[in-house]
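From: lab user (bench 3)
To: helpdesk
Subject: output format question, protein + 2-acetamido-2-deoxy-beta-D-glucopyranose

Hello, I'm new to running complex predictions and I'm not sure whether the block I got back is the full result or only part of it. Here's what I submitted:
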Amino acid sequence: MLEPDIVNVSSMKMNLLSFLLFFASTISSSLAKGSLLQTLVPSEFNDSGNARHLLEDESQAQKSDDMAQGYMSNDELEWAIQEFGQRCSNISRIYSIGKSVNGFPLWVIEISDKPGEEETEPAFKYIGNVHGDEPVGRELLVFLANWLCENHLKDPLATLIVENVHLHLLPSMNPDGFSLRKRGNANNIDLNRDFPDQFVTINDDEDSRQPETRAIMNWLRDMRFTASAAFHGGALVANYPWDGTEDKRTKYQGCPDDDVFRFMSSIYSHSHYNMSSSKEFLGGITNGAAWYPLYGGMQDWNYIHAGCFELTLEISDNKWPSAAELPILWRYNKMSMLNLVASLVKTGVHGRIYSSGDGRPLPGSITVSGINYTVKAGKTLGDYHRILAPREKYIVVATMPGYKSKNTTIWLDEGPVTLDFVLDPEVSVKGSVLQNVYDCDCNSKSKQEFVEFLWGAHLEVFFVLIVILGFLLVLFQRRAKVKFSTSRQLVGAKRTVQV
Ligand SMILES: *[C@@H]1O[C@H](CO)[C@@H](O)[C@H](O)[C@H]1NC(C)=O
Ligand SMILES: *[C@@H]1O[C@H](CO)[C@@H](O)[C@H](O)[C@H]1NC(C)=O
Ligand SMILES: *[C@@H]1O[C@H](CO)[C@@H](O)[C@H](O)[C@H]1NC(C)=O
Ligand SMILES: *[C@@H]1O[C@H](CO)[C@@H](O)[C@H](O)[C@H]1NC(C)=O
Ligand SMILES: *[C@@H]1O[C@H](CO)[C@@H](O)[C@H](O)[C@H]1NC(C)=O
Ligand SMILES: [Zn+2]
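Helpdesk reply: Thanks, we reran it on our side. This is the complete output you should expect:
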């Protein structure tokens, strides 16, 4: 399992003054430079041959110093993240999910009013710099963190996000590729082709995967994210699953949640300065495979294996624009970035699953009638967060092994729906007292131990209980003329809460 390295504040290298000086100098130098560099790579999406291992020719090496002007180096990004963690310590936590090939930590900023604590709230992640030569996202994520810190309790959207979402920002998934100014990581592997794939048996050998890929996969085994997005460059479009097709042809290949993904992508593109006015992509969104199929990508893996609805966001035609453009790109993307995160609490269906027996939260599952996809509830709190496109009627079904499933019909107009489920154990009414022992989802060994405990040293107590219960039952039947079985059903009937 993953044990995040929590930053030791006292050992921090960060010197705030030098950071500020650096920041001031980079801003002035990038403003002085002004003009846009040429796009280095014609298209993000041309997959003819192995062209995706991008150019590493001499001329690019020459350019790289110019390119980096005004962008944070890896060390500077690390300092900025640590400094943020200090400056905004009451709404953030800094941790690392692993290391790159060259040993650079993959730092994450978590932003929440209760960072690191488990709450009945959805979690969202943004990942930047998947491709080393697409650095805009890594800078925008630092802008986003700072904006949230400065505007918490001042701006309603900032406050909504801080108080109702756990937002995790990984500014750079590929720090080695960044310092080498190339697409792949230090082993020259394209990280967005390094995940297990549903259509192609590539990357199935876990040990041969890159450390950056493994770090993401372990992170998602450890944390339950409701949705996420990864930043890329080379186009201007919000791209959604599937990324691949079974027959490898370029064609629209929607996943079971196609409506949800088109809804989420549209939130991004329509909140953006001009993404939705694209001439190339209707509405500024595209199905991945309809654009160009790829295999081993991160987005499909998130949806299939991590219960996480992930978008791939192409945020500038120019992969590596001049740093002077960064504040403008932040302005263009700011509302998109905020609205996509906020959509997790402004729409969809949310709630908790409980056992009717003892009221304990259940780690059950949520499905929606007509959509072949399962969203899991949290292990400890039993909370679930199911994004759905609004303005439709849905039947939401809650299941849990050992319990009877329940369903409720909801209408999602504007705003979210809160829907809790109270599930009844799958037992006959007769013998329900003993049966309750078997309701617990403890393993069979502890069940056995419990039964042994009952029949062992505490046999007397158990018999006294039986006698009392029997007496109460007789009394109850005589006076209320209500059968025990009926009363159990009544308990089960106060099952759902809809707000
Ligand atoms: C991809 O690149 C090849 C060779 O460089 C070129 O012939 C082709 O037109 C390009 N395709 C796209 C979609 O840009
Ligand atoms: C964080 O600190 C600021 C400034 O001290 C304070 O106004 C705010 O209430 C704090 N927020 C939380 C969530 O504790
Ligand atoms: C969006 O605006 C930028 C900056 O003005 C421009 O370069 C780009 O071509 C525009 N894209 C679309 C799709 O309108
Ligand atoms: C539902 O999806 C699973 C894969 O997640 C697939 O194996 C199954 O065949 C699908 N069922 C239907 C009815 O499409
Ligand atoms: C919903 O519950 C009803 C009554 O329990 C059942 O008849 C129906 O099949 C369920 N529908 C779904 C979609 O599970
Ligand atoms: Zn990319």
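A quick orientation on your result: Residues 1-59, 431-454, 480-499 have pLDDT under 50 and may be disordered. Let us know if anything else is unclear.
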